[in-house]
Amino acid sequence: MAINHNQTWNLQERLQKYPGYRAEHTTLFANRQVIDYNLETGISNPVGTAYALRCDYDEDEKATDKLMQLQQDPQVDKLEALVIGTWEGEMAGGSSSFLIEALVGAKDWFPSLKALFIGDIHYSECEISWIVQSDISPILEAYPNLEILQIRGGDGLAFTPFVGHKNLKALIVETGGLSSATIAQICALDLPTLQHLELWLGSDNYGGNSSIADLNPILVERKFPNLIYLGLRNSEYSDDIAEAVVRSPLLNTIRILDLSMGTLSDAGAELLLKNPVVQQLDTFNIAENYLSDEILAFVEEQQANFPVQIIIDGQKKDEYEDEEYRYCSVAE
């Protein structure tokens, strides 16, 4: 099967550098500018703007209180994109379960919601590995028109019971450690229209205990056959992923392959760069890995000869105190 260039994918924002490095919130979500919801000004652009609910440190109000205020806005039924940041003034150990319950309970107020981001939280508010998530499946069941779901934080993250969703096009899971159990739950979801799957696999030190075998439903069984973008990012086993990707039938149909923020070496990169199918992709993102100056020079020299756009910025050094050491970009 040839690469389908007629399918649309418009989440270029996902190729930008992670704003959490700079202790910043996202400024762009679902191709919409993100602004904090203000009770006084209300919703002025329910379609073209993503509104964010956040709690300041030590604030008494919770995100659920702010959600109730948002529900009273006269344009809430037209709102298409919602971002949830810190859901409590003190995040330590506080799970998102009460927030999920409130969002499910508020579903009738948000009939137009297409994009939801739960966990726009940077490290100065709460380290990514300290964000305690919960079962997200009730969100998929409550919001049948949802097209983009983004979650940050892997601790406690679950997708049970296994549900189907006919309209979800993008599932983005950002973690410092994604468990093999959660990956299995994601792969058990019935998402027939999914075009964008992005998993930050993370570090074994923070719950990222997966291996290449856990990705077989995606790479070998083609559980999500309509993918345009595949992101297996922030991984400690990027070379294993590279070996599996070049053998995967999925490579013949996706247009964007994103292995950034990981531990990809020259060996893994060469395997991919010399593959003629990879060369025909639209975009190949291998930024923030462990590529040598020789590989980077080769890419720069050959870029004009490759149809694919190759992103290679921000390479890391693999030596720490004279010892070889490779790490994924986002862990704790």
UniProtKB/TrEMBL annotation:
InterPro entries: LRR_dom_sf, STM4015-like. SUPFAM superfamilies: RNI-like. This is STM4015 family protein.
